[in-house]
C-alpha cells in the first residue's frame, strides 16, 4: 500500500485502500499498523486534519480492528 507523508510529530505517513477499507499508518517510531473497516470519510478527515496525531487518537485508535505490519 502506498503511503503519503504527513506533517505530524507522531505519524510519518498514511495510506488507504478504498477497495478494502484498510488504513495503514506509519508512526515516527517506525511501527506500521493497519486498521480495518475504516470508512473513506475517516481517511479523508485524517488527511485534512490540522493535527493528524490528535485526530488519530480521537477517531481511529481503539475504534477499528488493527494489526501491526512489518516492512519487507
TrEMBL record:
Residues 7-64 form the KTSC domain. It comes from the Bacteria. InterPro entries: KTSC_dom (IPR025309). Pfam families: KTSC. This is KTSC domain-containing protein. It comes from Pseudolysinimonas kribbensis.
Amino acid at each position: 500500500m502506498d503511503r503519503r507523508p504527513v506533517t505530524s510529530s507522531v505519524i510519518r505517513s498514511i495510506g488507504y485502500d478504498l477497495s478494502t477499507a484498510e488504513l495503514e499508518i506509519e508512526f515516527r517510531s517506525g511501527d506500521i499498523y493497519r486498521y480495518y473497516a475504516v470508512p473513506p470519510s475517516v481517511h479523508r478527515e485524517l488527511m485534512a486534519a490540522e493535527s493528524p496525531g490528535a485526530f488519530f487518537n480521537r477517531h481511529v485508535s481503539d475504534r477499528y480492528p488493527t494489526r501491526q505490519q512489518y516492512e519487507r
